[in-house]
Amino acid sequence: MELPFAESWKIKMVEPIRKSTRQEREQWLKEAHYNVFQLKSEQVYIDLITDSGTGAMSDRQWAGIMLGDESYAGASSFFKLKEVITRLTGFEYVIPTHQGRAAENVLFSYLVHEGDIIPGNSHFDTTKGHIESRKAIALDCTIDEARQTQLEIPFKGNVDPAKLEKALQEHHSRIPFIIVTITNNTAGGQPVSMQNLREVRNIADKYNKPVIFDSARFAENAYFIKTREEGYQDKSIKEITKEMFALADGMTMSAKKDGIVNMGGFIATRRQDWYEGAKGFCVQFEGYLTYGGMNGRDMNALAIGLDENTKFNNLETRIRQIEYLAKKLDEYGIPYQRPAGGHAIFVDAPKVLTHVPKEEFPAQTLTVELYLEAGIRGCEIGYLLADRDPVTRENRFNGLDLLRLAIPRRVYTDNHMNVIAAALKNVYDRRETITRGVRITWEAPLMRHFTVQLERL
Ligand code: F0G
Asked: Which superkingdom is the protein from (predicted)?
């Protein structure tokens, strides 16, 4: 008999979690104004709000914590981190920051100016925020197929080369760089192929523009290249990683994802001029250059995390758990962005709650229902998150309306996946009875989803 698949780790430390009653959850969610960001973590049984900073560190990483060098300048922990980053990416210059958006802030302070246009594939919210706050434009050049949730293609996170080339022809002088997000979070944790990265590089070279990778989930992207793209089956994740980054000039990194640390980030680049230009902003916003926004101990843990998480076994364990959950949803007929992504399942809410009008926020309604059903906290990536049009102040209903179930790394077991799938099935089975959604009673002008107050209709 062939042996079944099992995790490439065993568990040394556990954290108790607590179930609640439906009555308790009704009360808590009402107090939270039907916004799951306003819940206390003790009120959550299985927390899928994000995979960012929520992973479990290994015993090696915890050992690294004890050996952290907290020297203000020249800490050995910085050089350890820098050595790993350079070995993995080929980038010689490294600036640590406290998280991914801080890396964006520091680098974009140097590179982005009013009137600029930055093409890319579904810029993450904070990336977009750091572009738009500088009165520049984030131009989405993702392939159209990414919007069809039921279409199954291997690299749904790709940049559309035709859209990118058109942008460069039309706005050449206004484009300081191209940014590619690997994996493409907003499109559903979907990977970008090596071939696509190569195409982007060729177009960039043709127009003499640099390329940045937003690399939060680069290791998961490398895993998909290895398992889905021809010619990469026999290459190691580290070899693929090196090959990917050879196609970029630099990277911003939220280390809270594929670095498997609770807090941290960095900029890395091969361009000395970028390093020289950005370093002043690091000192101004983050800290001195050999710690930026990080503790020495955290730089140690990150160095070890990056090395571990670019090993095939770790990634296989991770991605197969997402696939496991996806298979369960397939069994129950629940529609999600296909194929399953690297860090999450994105349920296509309007396809589930067909009676809830878009004005009543189907994905938020589904988020509410799932929490009430089982204390599982997902996150709306949809019409609420899309905010209003800055000019017309109308809600933006033109994108997808998804419930994201982000799976923290090395935290939950497949039994938890079974609970998630069953809870979702229970909601799905009574979908015909869910005819009304939620209404906004208070909202902030920007990034409203974190603080929005809602009522159930
Ligand atoms: N880029 C991508 C692709 C991200 O997914 C995130 C964060 C960031 C940049 C910003 O990094 O949080 O360290 O400042 N994504 C989290 C999420 C918050 O839940 O998807 P950060």
From this structure: Bacteria
